[in-house]
Amino acid sequence: MPKPKSSMSEQFGEVMGLAALLPICVVIGYLIGQFLDGKFGTTYLTVVFLLLGAAAGIISLVREIQKSTKKNG
Q1: Which sign, positive or negative, has the C-alpha torsion 42, 46, 51, 55?
Q2: Residues spanned by the domain of 26
């Protein structure tokens, strides 16, 4: 039995979640890096965790898009 189509509000929520995913991951990585730089007295951890946050955001975005594509056919 085919699944019923998503309502417009559900589709809008999915798209807004995807739009917010990457920036949130980058900000979280930046904040972790800032915290660790302050804790250890270094200057490079912000950049490292910023890049890790960006990578995590891209990976999560690709996974969500693949999951959505499979769900919608």
Answers
A1: positive
A2: 20-72
Query: Nearest Cα to 68, choosing from 20, 17, 25?
Result: 17
Q: In this structure, are residues 33 and 46 in contact, taking their beta carbons and an 8 Å threshold?
A: yes
Asked if residue 59 is part of any domain, the answer here is yes
- Kindly state whether residue 10 falls inside one of the protein's structural domains: no
Q: Of 70, 60, 71, 46, which is closest to residue 17 (Cα–Cα)?
A: 60
Residue-wise pLDDT for 1-41, tens only, equals 456 667 888 888 888 988 899 999 999 999 999 999 999 99
Q: What is the pLDDT at residue 1?
A: 45
34 and 50 in contact (C-beta within 8 Å)? no
CA distances 21 to 18, 41, 66, Å, are 5, 30, 15
pTM, to two decimals:
0.82
